Amino acid sequence: MIHARDADTRSASDEELDRIDAWWRAANYLSVGQIYLLDDPLLREPLRPEHLKPRLLGHWGTTPGLNFIYAHLERVITARDLNAICIVGPGHGGPAAVANAYLEGTYSELHPEVTRDEDGMRRLFRQFSFPGGIGSHVTAEVPGSINEGGELGYSLAHAYGAALDDPELIVFSIVGDGEAETGALAASWHSNKFLDPKGDGAVVRILHLNGYKIAGPAFLARIPRQELAALLEGYGHRPYFVEGSDPEVMHRQMAATLDEVLDDISRIQPRGGTLPGPWSPRRSSCHAGERESPASRARGAGAHRSRAGSR
Ligand SMILES: Cc1ncc(C[n+]2csc(CCOP(=O)(O)OP(=O)(O)O)c2C)c(N)n1
Ligand SMILES: [Mg+2]
């Protein structure tokens, strides 16, 4: 079992960590807005009942964790110029996926009517889980989505499929701890047996242990840590733990751990290249419009581009 790097380890600069935190908070705001708000997206006035959605579908629980991971993936993908994709598995993760795509600008590229201003935010918030709008989980309308979130259990299978399809790709696959209790996901931990660590793409699995499946307890978050580590090691994975509740400490841990994981992968998959760092000059599929080829465009259009994980 590998513990998260010491929180004092300098991997990202203080300024970078501040910017990651700002992204995370903005994504959290955009997520809450989607779940609750019908109007007044910038909360210019004191809240009134007519500003709120009369019926709520979707839930907050998994969202801050997804936003946290996504914000950190943005840093490593940009810093290392990764060709990466993020697959969002946890139930009702839709608000986070949409919020981050909106922050990136890719949501408005695909849906120009959802503009990047107050009117666009109103539309973004109103459409979420609303008649005539979009689903409460990740759906095909989310730019880059290849994993339909409505039926739990397939995130890892889709992640491995993407890595088998493209040897240049690094797939960050976020698995919900409730999702992990489905049969499909439980079996998918074995997909590493099909992957050639050197020749295929890489899968970084991020198990999001928020402790719950909606409101019920999720057991992978409640078994002793040693037992969880032994379970994952038994499947052939190398677990890293990032845990806590203080955002400042967590940001530092996550940045350092992601760097450690990606350095490990680059030692297994050395690539040529002229850019600084161990990675060849590839594009991130998270920035729509920067993709290099129709093939990679097609891939990005199917995958919820974001980024996180370990081989
Ligand atoms: C196959 C399947 N079974 C049950 C559900 C109902 N369901 C929706 S979200 C959820 C909990 C998922 O837990 P987790 O992945 O941990 O997400 P979180 O609750 O933390 O957001 C369940 C059981 C579903 N969508 N698909
Ligand atoms: Mg959960």
Brief rundown of the structure:
This protein has 10 helices and 7 strands.
Topology:
Layout: E1 2-3, H1 14-36, H2 63-80, E2 84-88, H3 94-104, H4 106-110, H5 118-127, H6 155-165, E3 170-176, H7 183-188, E4 202-208, E5 212-213, E6 216-217, H8 225-235, E7 240-241, H9 247-268, H10 294-302
Parallel strand pairs: 1-7, 2-3, 3-4
Antiparallel strand pairs: 5-6
Helix pairs in contact: 1-2, 1-3, 1-5, 2-3, 2-9
Bound molecules: thiamine diphosphate (TPP) and magnesium ion.
The site of magnesium ion has 9 residues, from strand 5.
Which features characterize this protein?
10 helices, 311 residues, disordered C terminus, globular, two-stranded parallel sheet, Rossmann fold, binds thiamine diphosphate, mainly alpha, binds magnesium ion
What does this protein look like?
This protein is mainly alpha-helical and 311 residues long. The protein has a single domain (2-302), classed as Thiamin diphosphate (ThDP)-binding fold, Pyr/PP domains (Rossmann fold, 3-Layer(aba) Sandwich), CATH 3.40.50.970. The protein has ten helices and seven strands. The protein has helices at residues 14-36, 63-80, 94-104, 106-110, 118-127, 155-165, 183-188, 225-235, 247-268, 294-302; strands at residues 2-3, 84-88, 170-176, 202-208, 212-213, 216-217, 240-241. A three-stranded parallel β-sheet has the order 2-3-4, sandwiched between helices. It has a two-stranded parallel ribbon with strand order 1-7. Helix 1 crosses helix 5, helix 2 (63-80) runs parallel beside helix 3 (94-104) and helix 2 packs across helix 9. The structure holds thiamine diphosphate and magnesium ion.
